[in-house]
Specification:
- The chain is α+β, with helices and mostly antiparallel strands and 522 residues long.
- It is 40% helix and 9% strand.
- The protein contains 17 helices and 11 strands.
- The protein is elongated.
- The termini are far apart.
Length: 522
């Protein structure tokens, strides 16, 4: 008696044996095959493909990528060649032309297939997103990625056809990009983009073609669009960074200490001079008004942040640290300098700046007279926010790092309060691009200016350049280019150090030196 299982196995075995006895399927997928001349390629041929409604196709083998391709052939007008045997000669001619085009792309190192402009943009945005990192010099920030994403969107709007293959974009396609970009800004009711914005967008577009289309073989550098970036020739006297003069810093520091951190603002007359009360209990005192009070939790938090910002300014001025390093400064980074006498330890301390907190990606240790500023910060910041790994400059309400708005808006308020800048007419907190100022001196003053001022003043006081460079984590070449300007007439005192006893004064007259200045050599 045969079981059902054995019966099923026997049936399946019979079916397998029967299938093996069947003849091989002889359905033809290549009709009217005609090979190209042997001098071109022995593996290429023209044929009609039944799976594509008998249309004429070219079979092409890419030996470099080991891929096989079948391209539908078209005539010179872009129409499909009639799928009949009588059109074989026309298909053969079109096949040779197509083969020559493909062979040229292979010889240039390009891919046979192509991608659309949208696909290239998407690949580039995803590649940039993968580079987002909080570690300096290890990628880009999230904010920078958003800017790149916006620039790519402008490029897609300019091309206005996401399905355009990248190899069909004209070489001069982006020649009128700047004009188009300005017109679009006016269309949306925005201000004309500045040249720096246009240059940045064109640079991103060019990088997108190079890092996707060229790098992946869809184009070569010789066939990608030409994107010329021309910068206006800004003639500057030198490369000197904008810093604060001594009167400017004294005025800024005093107004910030007496008014800004206390939530006050001075009342000025038409000549921007302070007035005094001429009667009442405040007679003889300077006029001011209170803009921030401690009547609410938000007001108390605001005043605390103002005082913390003031000490951030003082730390930047006394240490020369970059603003990025100050933002990431933690309590454990402050270290005692035991090599100093006890009296000097009350003023000077050491600051450890790890590599991830620096612009150069190299950690360093600097000395700075900021002990008093740190102690004052400890008085106003609660103990629960002063753990070793806690950031010093953080929001006192939620514990998060200060936003960019706090750093930028507070600096603008300090500059205006110190009478170094005026508010613009269109400046309004929370509107458009936020607070705007016009700096009276014409300088480009930012929080980075405190670092520039520190370096400039140290050099002016005679601190050796090598020490300044090491203490501020920069190079002497950079200082020479942007800060130090040698003046021989003013350097005699430094040049004479240690040589006084070896230099004897002359007993002869030196009037002859000036005689050369009045001679006319014609």
């Amino acid at each position: 008696m045969v079981s059902k299982t054995e019966e099923k196995v026997n049936t399946l075995t019979d079916e397998i044996q029967a299938s093996r006895r069947k003849k091989k399927v002889t359905n033809k997928f290549v009709l009217d095959k005609q090979e190209l001349p042997k001098g071109l390629d022995k593996n290429a041929y023209v044929f009609r493909n039944p799976s594509r409604n008998n249309c004429w196709c070219l079979y092409f083998y890419d030996r470099y990528s080991d891929k096989r391709h079948r391209f539908v052939l078209k005539d010179q007008f872009g129409n499909n060649i009639p799928p009949v045997k009588e059109a074989q000669q026309e298909a053969f001619t079109a096949g040779i032309i197509k083969f020559s085009q493909l062979k040229e792309k292979i010889d240039r190192g390009e891919q046979v297939n192509t991608i659309t402009f949208k696909e290239m943009c998407d690949l580039f945005v995803r590649k940039e997103e993968a580079r987002i990192s909080d570690i300096p010099h290890r990628g880009i920030t999230f904010i920078r990625w958003r800017i790149v994403k916006s620039q790519v969107k402008w490029a897609r709007d300019f091309i206005n056809n996401d399905k355009t293959p990248v190899h069909r974009i004209r070489r001069n396609a982006f020649d009128n990009y700047e004009v188009w970009r300005i017109e679009q800004a006016r269309l949306y009711g925005k201000k004309d983009p500045i040249q720096k914005t246009i240059i940045s967008e064109l640079g991103t577009i060019r990088r997108m073609f190079e890092e996707v289309a060229v790098a992946r073989g869809y184009l070569s550098r010789a066939t990608m669009p030409e994107i010329a970036i021309t910068k206006k020739n800004k003639r500057r006297i030198d490369n000197r960074r904008d810093d604060l003069s001594v009167p400017e810093w004294e005025q800024l520091e005093r107004s910030a200490r007496l008014y800004f951190i206390k939530g006050r603002t001075r009342i000025l007359d038409d000549n921007y001079k302070m007035e005094k009360h001429d009667k009442g209990k405040d007679k003889g005192l300077w006029k001011y008004k209170t803009v921030v009070t401690r009547n609410s939790a938000r007001g108390k938090n605001n005043l605390t942040h103002r005082e913390m910002f003031y000490y951030a300014m003082r730390i930047a001025m006394d240490s020369g640290m970059r603003v990025g390093s100050i933002k990431k400064l933690k309590w454990r980074h402050i270290d005692k300098n035991t090599s100093l006498p006890e009296e000097m330890q009350k003023k000077w301390c050491s600051i450890d700046v790890p590599a991830e907190n620096t612009k150069t990606g190299i950690g360093y240790r600097c000395a700075a007279p900021i002990v008093r500023h740190i102690n004052n910060l400890k008085k106003i910041i609660p103990s629960e926010l002063r753990r070793p790994n806690d950031l010093i400059f953080r929001n006192q309400s939620n514990g998060k790092p200060w936003s960019i708005r706090i750093w930028e808006d507070y600096l603008k308020e300090v500059l205006v309060e110190g009478r170094l800048a005026n508010w613009r007419e269109d400046s309004e907190r929370g509107k458009n691009s936020g607070l705007k100022i016009d700096i009276l001196s014409g300088k480009n003053l930012t929080f980075y200016s405190f670092r520039h001022t520190h370096i400039t003043w140290r050099l002016r006081e005679g601190t050796p350049m090598a020490i300044v460079a090491r203490n501020t984590n920069t190079s002497m070449q950079y200082i020479e280019k942007h800060y130090f300007h040698y003046k021989a007439d003013e350097s005699v005192e430094q040049l004479a150090k240690g040589r006084e006893k070896y230099i004897k004064p002359t007993i002869a007259s030196t009037e002859w030196i000036r005689a050369f200045e009045v001679e006319d050599y014609g």
